[in-house]
Description:
Layout: E1 2-7, H1 13-22, E2 28-35, H2 41-49, E3 53-55, H3 58-63, H4 65-73, E4 78-81, H5 90-95, E5 100-104, H6 118-127, E6 132-139, E7 149-156, H7 163-186
Helix pairs in contact: 1-2, 1-7, 6-7
Amino acid sequence: MKKIAIFGSGFGSNAENICLFFAKSPDIKVVFIGTNNKDAFIVNRAKKLGIPLVIFSKIELNHFNELYKKLVGEEVDYIILAGFLLKLPEKMIKKYSDKIINLHPSLLPKHGGKGMYGNNVHKAVIDAHEAESGITIHLVNKKYDDGKILFQKKCLVSSNETVFTLAKKINKLEQLFFPKIIKTYILK
């Protein structure tokens, strides 16, 4: 059985969706949810789901010693970033090379990089008058949103699109495809 940890910083809808998707899986188990934001709604979701929660600071993430011990102790094989906003330290990326999967709410390489998350991305897509947007599921490397692309799915951006309506379209794609692509990649 492969074990995964999910890292998130915000609302946690994708984290919850992944947990529910793998809840009865004989092949993949979510062993904990990690967050750098003790006030984020993802904390409530972890408690509601009965998934162990690990809260860590940016300093603890960057030093990576204690967090690495936790990952090793739980025998974590893969780390899933589901709305996690901090850049991962190089030590972590090296230890989990090709085993950290991220979800980005645009068609990379467009609208990626530092500060490009959530509604910031949707606003940038609309402001650029893009005809389409979508999701990108990719591996994590040293640069923001630059790792090998595993999957992309497009959606149309209408002429009267708002940040809110585009966010809804993107979230539907995230909910539908992210757990499936995680499963496909891990069990390849």
